[in-house]
Structure formats: C-alpha cells, structure tokens
Write a structure and sequence with these properties.
The protein is of the alpha+beta class and 711 residues long. It folds into four domains: 70 residues, Cytochrome C Oxidase, Chain J (Irregular); 304 residues, Catalase core domain (Catalase HpII,  Chain A, domain 1, Beta Barrel), CATH 2.40.180.10; 82 residues, Catalase, four-helical domain (Hemocyanin, N-terminal domain); 165 residues, Class I glutamine amidotransferase (GATase) domain (Rossmann fold). The chain contains 18 helices and 19 strands. The strands form three sheets. Strands 1, 2, 3, 4, 5, 6, 7, 8, 9 and 10 form a ten-stranded antiparallel β-sheet that branches. The protein has a seven-stranded mixed β-sheet with strand order 15-12-11-16-17-19-18, with helices on both faces. The chain is globular and about 95 Å long. Bound molecules: CIS-heme D hydroxychlorin gamma-spirolactone.
Length: 711
C-alpha cells in the first residue's frame, strides 16, 4: 500500500492546484497598509482625535472602516455541520467508467480533477470540540470540466429519518434544548431521546451513532457514504442505481469514549490539527471511491426498499466496486475564505449522475440552495472563489447582492436575436434528466416497503465484534444516562428490545430500567462483516508514538527506535518533565517535543519507554509518567518498553498481561499490545513487534481483563 508516500515527506505541495482559485490569492507580503479603497495609511494605532486626550472625530474614515468591517465579520454558521475543516486535493479514476456513466471526470484515468473536501461534525456549533459523539460530514466538491459535482456525504451509511420533511424536527431535538441552550454538541439529553422513542424509523441510525463510528480517530480514518441512492447514466441513456462510498487507505479507526471526552478538553482541535499536520508533513490522506451499482431490474430484489435512506446495501449483497482515488495534498490558505464559504449541494450534479426518488434526497435538493442564500448573503455565492466552477459560466442571471461578474452584454434574456440566442441551451451536451416514468396519486404517505425499522438494526448488531458491542452498550449508558425523564429511559429499553433482547437487557442495567419481559428481536441471524471496524485495513503508517524519557536515557535504544518508526511512517515525539534538551548516559542531547503539561497519552496512538537507569528511575517517581502509561493501557493502546524501561510498567497499575522479567530475559514478550524486552541489545525484533502492535490500532482483548487500571 502506498498510503504514506515516504517520497512525499517534506515536499510541501503537489502540482494539482485549482487554477481558478489562484487568481484570487493575495499574500499581502512586503506591502504598504491601505484602506479598502487603496489609500495608504500612515498610522493604524491611534484614532484621529481633537487633542491627544480629546474625543475621536467622526471624520476618521480609517477608524470607521476598520471598526465597521470588524463589526460585520461574522456570517451565520451552518444550521447543521457548523464545525468543519477543509483541504484541497485531486481525484482520478483507475479505469474508464464509460460503461456506467457519461460523467467526463470518470471517463479516463488521465483526467485529474481538483477537489475540495470539508469534514464536519453535525450538531455542535462552530467553536465546539472535534471529538464529540456525532456523525461526521464528508463533503467533496469536484471541480470538473462539466461543472461542479458535489458528493455531500457522511461517515455513516444511513440516516436518522426517511423523509426530509422530518429533518427540522430531528435537528431541533438533537440540538441544545431551546430554553437553556444545554447541552452543547451532545445527544445525551431528554429532547433527543424523547424524539427517538417516538420515531421508530430512527432505531437503526441510533445504533450506528452509539457505535465507534461516531468517535473517529481521525478524519483520515473514516469512510464516507453518499447515503442516498443516486443513478449513474451512460452515454446510451442506460441508468443504474448507485450508492457512493469513500474508503480510507489507512482503514477505519476510532477513539474510545473516555479518550474522546478528555480530548474535548485537552485538545478540542484534535481532528483538524491531525489533518492539517498530516498534509503539512506530506502524509497525504487518500480515499478510494467505491460504487455499489444495481441494475434497475433488481430494484425490488431485497427485503428492504433501496430508496429507504435508513437502510444500507450490505456489501456482501452488492459489492463495492473501487473506481478511483482522491488524494488530499494541500491545506487551505484562509479558513474563512475557503472552508467557511464553501457551499455544497447534492443537486450540483454533472451529466451521467442523476437522482432517485429517495424521499430524503428529494428534500435535500431543496434545502442546500436555500440555506446558502441566508448563510452566504444572497444568490451570488457561486462567485465566491472556492465555489466557482472551472467550467465557464454563461447565463442570464444578473444582479443581486455581492455580484462580482461584470456582464458586458446588453442581452439578459432568452430567446433573443440581438445576440443570436446566446447563451444557448445545448440539447446534445446539456444536462438531461433521466426520463424515469412516474405516476401516482398525490398522497402524504409512506410506502409500506419503508415500514421495517428493526431488521437491519439487528443485522448491524449481529455484525459487531464483542468489543464494538461493549462500546455500544456503554454509549447507551452514557447517553441515556443523561436523560432525566425515567419514562423515556424505559422506553429506550423497550424500543431496542425490538432489535435484540440481550441488547435491551444490557441497556436496562445501566439506565435504571426494567429489562423487557417479553423476548424481542427480529429473528435476523445474518451479519455484514464489512461494517465491523474489526475487519478494516490495519497499517502503522502516520501513527503517532509518545516516547517517555528523562536525563540518562539510553541513546542507542532511542535512536534505533526512532529510525525504525520513521522507516514505516510512524512519527515520534519525546515527552519529558520539562521542555528543552535531555541528555543520554553517553552525553547525547535530544530535544523534548512536549512536557506533561501540554501532552497526554490521549494525544498519541502508542507509548514507548526507552531504557537507561537514571531516566527510568525519574519516570518511576513521577506521577505524570505513571498516569501516562496507565491511561494508555486503559485505552487499549500499544505500549512498548525496553530494558530498564520495563520497570516503569512494573511500577504502574498495569496488571494481567505478561511483561518481560527474570523468567524470559532477552526474549521479546508480547501480550495484548504490551511489547517488552529486557537484557537485550538487539532491538530489531522489539521494534518490529512494536510496529505490528501499532498497526493493530487498539488491543481490545484488554477489556476482558478483570482488573482495569484507573485513569
Ligand atoms: Fe445535510 C449540510 C450531509 C441530510 C440539509 N449535510 C450538510 C453537510 C453534510 C451533509 C456533509 C455539510 C456540508 C459542508 O461541509 O458545508 N445531509 C448530509 C447527508 C444527509 C443529509 C449525508 C443524508 C443523506 N441535510 C440532510 C437533509 C436535509 C439537509 C435531509 C434537509 C432536508 N445539510 C442540510 C443543510 C446544510 C447541510 C441545512 C447545512 C449547511 C449547508 O447545508 O450548507 O442544507
């Protein structure tokens, strides 16, 4: 796998810039300060006054302009997905997709399409923490030669509701309660669970929301799903149903809840920092685009309706065909101009991509354009640089707030003879909606095929590993534990009895509910291994390891360790009591990356304790370093120690795993992600063992240990 291209490290940027954006960039480098009208300014620290102790004068145009602009600097945040982080990149298909679609950007691998991606949380406001339990948005704008195509996706393949008309109710219920604006960025409150127990169609989505998917380790380690069913249409006019997938080449990995909560305080920017740093270092995130394609004649082949957005198409039934790859290789220049002002819309399609009658999608097609009008202040938001297509724009739309184009023609209507009917619609190459035959009575109804709300929820539950199930149960205990109304808590127990009796019993244990009397479940015994994160890609690349060391460390061990990690694309940081330099037994100096005030185990994927008597003796007497390893152990992270370093583990609260000691001197000892060796100078096997443990991400077997360490 070529995920972390060593060759890329240190290289700042790729050459796939969106030329369109280039012309709007300004560096303000080595320039004179001016007003917005180009007048040079002599002093910007003192307002114009009548006497140096006198009142400020109305005629101070510079003061007025500066303050007025500042007073108007904020725009409304997105009503959902307010907190987000974006990056530029490019996309290429692996092979021509012409059999399925006439979309030009999917026509040939030689076509390199610039993209802009914005990842987001849904519920929290713009200043909320990154690691909250929530769905993550994964919106991609492809700047294609035929116009912008937006794939506005989430990291969960299904949705809360089936019909867009319920979206305002659903969002109102999960957002902070209106009387006191509490809680922020959390689903653990009465209003949301009240909505849940009254909305059976939400059952399946709640299981996903309470699963590890909702606390990703990184934006780089999430899948993306278009959720809705779309159509691909080829040049011959043949249409097929399609679901879109993004698959990260680093696999799908999550935090644990205790870690996510602590990160929200210690580093609320954890995900955006991770993405920014990865791109800055040349560790470009890569996602493969996959499609599940369904022939129209197979529309009714499944025991769920393929237009129902609360259902996914199990990959075991409809395989995901991997068709191309997106690489994110450039951070933004300006957060507001790009990430904040970017406007996505599922209705931004190109020829060859069309809609289905999924009632959620149909409603989305209205909402996104509507919301940009208020958020970006008018109908000309397509002229903001980040939203401009690379394809030329010609139409008779004119005027409105913030119009930038100077339309020089006197003709602003069609048909016309003064300009020979230009701009003229093109019946051959212009977008043609798929001519689907529809008929029916006007009704406010849901089709009976949308009525089974539990079978796929059981399928999902069946597909979870033991650890994943345990996490879901604990998430129920936390989220429903935040509900004050006892009746709602009991109704949650009863609701999930429809999915699985054992699940309901386990929920009841933690929320003070009565376990269901009647056995529940749906009778579904099938599972979909593809949805379990246990079966994802597991590689060590781009992981971050904390090295605990103090003065008197063993320099050979640490240097060899750092080299071995670097070779596989793992980054290392040295954590010590204070910033500055630490000195090895042999006098070698190393720069400390962070001290215990600024770092915590929660910011790393793994911990390594290097040898050196003096260093380890200091670590053993330091509560911070003991807490560091205890906490990493509790969060199921890989822990490695060599020679004297093993003594820190012995002094810690870690129990129940085998650690190198007198009976296994010189041998590599590995159990449940704890990798140790003592009395050895050949650390090659240790380094390799540690890398393997890092690749595993977490060692959930530790959850079964009777005695877990406090942290
Ligand atoms: Fe939505 C934003 C994804 C259903 C209405 N949505 C928004 C964003 C993402 C999604 C990723 C953030 C885009 C950005 O970064 O700017 N939304 C989804 C997915 C859905 C979904 C995958 C289920 C298939 N959304 C959905 C429905 C409605 C909306 C049913 C309303 C009928 N969504 C919006 C919105 C937002 C939005 C209000 C808020 C900000 C924006 O559009 O630009 O229009």
């Amino acid at each position: 796998m070529d995920t972390v291209q060593k060759k890329n490290r240190g290289k700042v940027q790729d050459d796939t810039k969106n030329e369109q954006l280039e012309i709007f960039r300004s560096d303000h480098n080595n320039e004179k300060l001016t007003t917005n009208h180009g007048l040079q300014i002599s002093n910007t620290d003192d307002s114009l006054k009548a006497g140096s102790r006198g009142p400020t004068l109305m005629e101070d145009f510079h003061f007025r302009e500066k303050l007025t602009h500042f007073d108007h600097e904020r725009i409304p945040e997105r009503v959902v997905h307010a907190r987000g982080f974006g990056a530029h990149g490019y996309f290429q298909v692996y092979e021509p997709m012409t059999e399925y679609t006439k979309a030009k950007f999917l026509e040939h691998p030689s076509v390199k399409t610039p993209v802009f991606v914005r990842f987001s949380t849904v519920v929290g406001s713009k200043g909320s923490a990154d690691t909250v339990r929530d769905v993550r948005g994964f919106a991609t704008k492809f700047y294609t030669s035929e116009g912008n195509y937006d794939l506005v996706a989430n990291n969960i393949p299904i949705f809360f509701i089936q019909d867009a008309i319920k979206f305002p109710d659903m969002v109102h219920s999960i957002k902070p309660e209106p009387h006191n604006d509490i809680p922020q960025a959390s689903a653990a409150h009465d209003n949301f669970w009240d909505f849940i127990v009254n909305t059976p169609e939400i059952t399946h989505m709640i299981l996903w929301l309470l699963s590890d998917r909702a606390i990703p380790r990184s934006f780089r380690m999430m899948e993306g799903f278009g959720v809705n069913t779309f159509r691909l249409v080829n040049a011959q006019g043949k249409a097929r149903f399609v679901k879109f997938h993004w698959k990260p080449l680093l696999g799908v990995h999550s935090l644990v809840w205790d870690e996510a909560q602590k990160l929200a305080g210690k580093d609320p920017d954890f995900h955006r920092r991770d993405l920014w740093d990865a791109i800055s270092m040349g560790n470009y995130p890569e996602f493969e685009l996959g499609v599940q394609i369904l022939e129209e004649e197979n529309e009714f082949k499944f025991n769920f309706d393929i237009l129902d957005p609360t259902k996914f198409w199990p990959e075991e039934l409809v395989p995901v065909k991997i068709i191309g790859k997106m690489t994110l290789n450039r951070n933004v220049d300006n957060f507001f101009a790009e990430t904040e002002q970017v406007a996505f819309h599922p209705g931004h399609v190109v020829p060859g991509i069309d809609f289905s009658n999924d009632p959620l999608l149909q409603g989305r097609l209205f909402s996104y354009l509507d919301t940009q009008l208020i958020r970006l202040g008018g109908p000309n938001f397509h002229e903001i640089p980040i939203n401009r297509p690379v394809a030329p724009v010609h139409n008779n739309q004119r005027d409105g707030y913030h119009r930038m184009t100077i339309d020089r023609s006197r003709v602003n209507y069609f048909p016309n003879s003064l300009q020979k009917n230009s701009p003229i619609p093109d019946p051959q190459n212009g977008y043609i909606h798929y001519a689907e035959k529809v008929e029916g009575k006007k009704v406010r109804e849901r089709n009976p095929s949308f009525k089974d709300h539990y079978s796929q929820a059981t399928l999902f539950w069946n597909s979870m590993s033991e650890a994943e199930r345990q996490h879901i149960i604990e998430a129920f205990h936390f989220e429903v534990g935040g509900v004050t109304n006892k009746e709602i808590r009991q109704r949650v127990v009863d609701m999930f009895n429809n999915v699985n009796s054992q699940l309901a019993i386990e929920i009841a244990k933690g929320v003070g509910g009565t376990p269901p009397i009647t056995p529940g479940g749906t009778g579904v015994t099938a599972s979909s291994p593809a949805v379990s994160q246990e079966n994802t890609i597991k590689v060590p690349q781009t992981r971050k390891v904390a090295i605990l060391a103090e003065n008197g460390f063993n320099c050979t061990e640490i240097v060899k360790f750092m080299e071995a990690m670097e070779d596989v694309g793992i980054t290392t940081e040295i954590i010590s009591t204070s910033l500055g330099q630490i000195t090895s037994v042999s006098g070698m100096e190393l720069e400390v990356s962070k001290h215990y005030h600024s770092a915590g185990s929660i910011m790393y994927d793994a911990v390594y304790i290097t040898g050196g008597r003096q260093s380890v003796d200091s670590l053993i007497t330091n509560g911070d370093s003991l807490h560091f390893v205890n906490e990493a152990f509790k969060h199921a992270k890989p822990i490695g120690a060599t020679n004297e370093g093993v003594d820190l583990l012995k002094a810690s609260a870690i129990q129940g795993v085998k650690i190198a000691g007198t009976d296994n001197q010189g041998q590599l000892t590995t159990e449940l992600g704890v990798v140790t060796i003592q009395n050895s100078t050949d650390l090659t096997s240790f380094n390799q063992g540690f890398i393997n443990a890092v690749a595993q991400h977490r060692h959930w077997g530790r959850q079964n240990l009777k005695k877990m360490v406090p942290a």
